[in-house]
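Why do we bother with holo predictions? Because pocket geometry can differ from the apo form. Keep that in mind while you read this record for (2R)-2,3-dihydroxypropanoic acid.
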Amino acid sequence: MTGHVYVTRQLTDDAMAAVAALGRPVVAGREEPPSRAELLRDVAGAAAVISTLTERLDAAVLDAAGPGLRVVANVAVGYDNVDVAAAHARDVVVTNTPGVLDAATADLTLGLVLALARRIAEGDRFLRTGTPWVWGPRMMTGLDLSAGATLGVIGYGRIGRAVARRARGFDMRVLATPTRTPLTEEEQAVEFRELPELLAGSDVVTLHCPLTPQTQHLIDDGALARMRPGALLVNTARGGIVDTDALLRALATGRLGGAALDVFEDEPHVDPRLLPLEQVVLTPHLGSAGDRTRSAMCRLAVRNVAAVLSGVEPPTPVGGLSG
Ligand code: DGY
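The structure, written out:
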């Protein structure tokens, strides 16, 4: 087949209907990610690929698609799974889905901050053991967010700013790494700190930067050693930003008070050493998993494809090449 739209995985129903309405042949994958062999087979001859973060869209896949490929529309704001330089070198537009998932991801982040600080997941697990218990003044106490606790936001982009807004609603003091993005007055209502000072000054550190060669293992032994003793770490960005071995060392010594992880270094593999740790909260990459959010992400990806195939600027291109 040539000139088709290859949808690597089943999208939301409304988005699948929008794909059908593009008026091109469609090759659609299953709910689960395609194998590498299926990806290489089904991309051959495609004019457009709608991918998710589980597929590696590298030079080999772009070459397998052939010269008719015009756009890779990733259903995620992150696009570390796409070799953008290789795509641009082949005149292929890459798009992502920024904006529509900020609130959902920020909501989950605050949920994880609360779960960690107030030991919600641990309390839930405890009750399910059936262990006899009675209320006590010293029982399962945790960090009071609204008693002046400080949240450090690494990556003050759209999602980081949405997290900061929510944290202020909990009366937290908010630090953020500096940004060159123009900010509204409300968005400036945080204290900007370079990374070492932010790490040293926060009770809870939350990650909202993209995964790039510069941020790979940004949170390593050195960064963890700079954090306040007993501080908490939340990662809803990308697993590779945190060095899992270093994290486990910091948790084992008690240097780090706890961690909430929605993303993992070798996703979907979860390091089994994390599983028995009571001070660790784990969720399966749920940041954007709101019904309406997922639908908005999928529909935006289809809009990007429609635009490129009809020769106009797509709503959310990545990098320099579009249209
Ligand atoms: C993204 O959009 O990058 C998220 O990780 C997917 O929910």
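Residues 291-309 form the longest helix (19 residues).
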